[in-house]
């Protein structure tokens, strides 16, 4: 029955490419550079951190601000890159622009406070008590293979600094440039250490006509 045990093991590990060149999110992998592929394939955990898609008005900074038509198109593009299979975990600050972007993960969105004391939820009257610090701790301790995190220009950098503090990124003095949209910050764990690959402009799209 050795062949049967081998087949069972091969099927169980197919998602991490142990039995071939397949990868469980092939569209996403195709957006990476050639010299990044081996590490991404071998990683046992992945956290994709993104800034919310474009807002209906760049001057709108309230929690209730929604996405523009271009932002909606960005969400669709991100969903294509992530593939049809739901993410194992999807997290977002409770600002509506982040929650709406998180729909690309095809799974329930777990909201956390965008800042201490801001407990208004997007789409619900139930107050949000979960802090970002708790969200980060639970993500670090999680066994989820794939996690999507949707944040803001500054708090994207908070996640990167927490998981891969020595990695080079677009963060300048703790924040992304105001014009930076559509990048995917791909944190991946390899041999117990977290590393960062950035997919520049991966889901930025032109405004619909």
From TrEMBL:
PROSITE patterns referenced in this protein's UniProt entry, alphabetically: PROKAR_LIPOPROTEIN
Keywords for the protein's UniProt record, in alphabetical order: Signal
Domain of life: Bacteria
Residues annotated as signal peptide: 1-20
Keyword Cell cycle: no
Residue ranges the record marks as coiled coil: none
Name of the protein this chain belongs to: Histidine phosphatase family protein
């Amino acid at each position: 029955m050795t062949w049967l045990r081998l087949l069972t093991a091969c099927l169980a590990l197919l998602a991490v490419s142990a039995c071939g060149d397949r990868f469980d999110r092939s569209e996403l992998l195709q957006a990476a550079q050639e010299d990044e592929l081996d590490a991404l394939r071998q990683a046992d955990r992945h956290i994709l951190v993104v800034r919310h898609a474009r807002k209906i008005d760049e001057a709108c900074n309230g929690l209730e601000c929604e996405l523009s038509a271009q932002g909606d198109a960005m969400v669709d593009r991100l969903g294509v890159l992530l593939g049809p299979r739901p993410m194992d975990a999807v997290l977002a600050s409770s600002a509506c622009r982040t929650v709406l972007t998180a729909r690309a993960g095809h799974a329930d969105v777990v909201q956390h406070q965008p800042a201490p004391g801001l407990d208004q939820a997007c789409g619900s009257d139930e107050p949000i008590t979960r802090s970002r610090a708790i969200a980060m701790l639970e993500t670090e301790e999680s066994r989820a293979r794939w996690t999507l995190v949707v944040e803001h220009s500054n708090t994207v950098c908070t996640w990167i600094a927490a998981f891969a503090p020595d990695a080079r990124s677009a963060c300048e003095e703790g924040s992304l440039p105001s014009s930076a949209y559509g990048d995917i910050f791909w944190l991946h764990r390899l041999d117990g250490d977290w590393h960062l690959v950035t997919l520049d402009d991966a889901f930025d799209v032109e405004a619909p006509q």
